[in-house]
Design goal:
By secondary structure, this protein is an all-alpha fold. The chain has 18 helices and no strands. It starts with a helix and ends with a helix.
Length: about 400
């Protein structure tokens, strides 16, 4: 419903702005530009969707090998000590713990198709433990804030779209996304821990976040000491080594588990093809709406206003060009994706704005969509402080994405 209003809003605002330009500025070509943009962006959306087929099939095929080979189970076991402390209200050994761990692990690996069923199953199981069936329980709130923070180890979809938009190295945003999404998750989790009076100094919680923070701090220190022209080279090398090691680990684990690795890959690749075809109408609709909004000049008015405010305080304004992605992300993942693609199309995939929009896309998740779907599935009417704490995590991720992108790409 939210996306419906946003999409209609693009056209209505574009019409008003174009009418003002025609009447007061005498811009007789504005409506021609708008209509041309609808044709151009519709063609772009179709081409991008078709181009996604091969890459999505490849990655989802690899992920299916990891799923059948037991890699998700290994991730769940490794995360067990941490998540058992984050959800103290869940009885030891309750099946909800396993569902939560599987959901978080699938999200970290970018397995959206697997993550959502696990998440809905977890909500059903948490609702069984919930004494007030109309109100969100503490474990539910922690679970959804972790989901909304978008903790991701492999931002597959972002890299895929960067490849489609002609990025010289689509994986150069891999480490920045990982760092930004960690900040979002840490802020969201710690805020909920404080609210729910969970001991944040527990060894498992402190060890996990402290260890990741130390790794990220070391990464920042190393990159700050490098010449700027070497930052991209080193980060890209590390990212590609990690990605290839993950693929290799999935294959080795699949062979050791004696699964048919090839058949698993084919089944996953089929899902990739179906996904690529399924998103065609959505991507075209959103890109056309965004294209109309931008062609009318409404986007320029909004961004120029933000730049003017930032400029008053003497700040650099490069980051403002990527903010449409950040503003859209809590409302709609597909809408934010459309904004990211539009930013890369407008400024270039390897521009600062193009890279920052990619990092912003991977740094957080769709808060309102997640809350509505997961709570709606179990008829929760009172979400309590879920949305406010999830948006706090989103804000932390956006701020971190901006600073980290300046470190890596400025």
């Amino acid at each position: 419903m939210v996306l419906n209003y946003i999409w209609i809003g693009f056209f209505l605002i574009a019409f008003v702005v174009a009418l003002i330009k025609l009447i007061f500025l005498g811009d007789v070509g504005i409506f021609t530009e708008i209509m041309n943009s609808t044709f151009d962006t519709a063609k772009l959306g179709f081409e991008i969707s078709l181009g996604l087929t091969g890459v999505l099939s490849l990655w989802l095929g690899v992920m299916k090998i990891g799923e059948r080979g037991g890699m998700i189970t290994l991730f769940s076991r490794a995360a067990g000590p941490l998540f058992s402390k984050l959800f103290p209200d869940i009885p030891k050994g309750h099946p909800a713990s396993a569902s939560i761990l599987m959901n978080i692990s699938a999200n970290m690996l970018g397995l959206d198709n697997a993550a959502t069923p696990f998440g809905l199953k977890a909500m059903d199981q948490l609702q069984e433990l919930n004494p007030n069936k109309d109100q969100a329980s503490n474990p539910m709130i922690m679970f959804l804030v972790l989901n909304a923070s978008g903790l991701t180890l492999i931002p597959i979809s972002v890299m895929v779209y960067r490849a489609q938009m002609g990025a010289a190295n689509p994986s150069d945003i891999f480490i920045p996304v990982m760092m930004a999404t960690f900040v979002a998750t840490m802020v969201g989790a710690l805020a909920v821990c404080i609210k729910q009076r969970i001991n944040i100094f527990n060894k498992a919680i402190l060890g996990f976040f402290g260890g990741l923070a130390a790794i990220i701090a070391l990464t920042v220190f190393i990159f700050q000491s490098l010449p700027q022209d070497q930052v991209n080279v080193v980060s890209s090398l590390v990212a590609n080594i990690i990605l290839f090691c993950i693929i290799t680990a999935f294959l080795v684990k699949g062979m050791r588990s004696k699964i048919n690795v090839f058949d698993a890959f084919i089944d996953g690749a089929k899902e990739g093809f179906q996904t690529a075809v399924r998103i065609i109408p959505y991507l075209i609709a959103l890109l056309v709406g965004i294209g109309v909004f931008r062609a009318s000049g409404a986007m320029d008015f909004l961004m120029d206003g933000m730049k003017a405010v930032v400029g008053i305080f003497g700040g650099d304004t490069q980051w403002v060009d990527a903010m449409p992605t950040a503003l859209m992300k809590p409302l709609s993942g597909s809408g934010a994706r459309g904004m990211m693609i539009d930013t890369m199309r407008e400024f270039g995939a390897d521009s600062f704005a193009g890279r920052l929009s990619s990092v912003l896309q991977g740094a957080t998740d769709t808060t309102f969509f997640i809350v509505s779907v997961y709570y709606g599935a179990v008829n929760i009417k009172n979400s309590r402080y879920t949305v406010s704490y999830a948006l706090l995590a989103d804000l932390a991720g956006v701020i971190a994405a901006i600073f980290i992108s300046y470190l890596f790409f400025a």
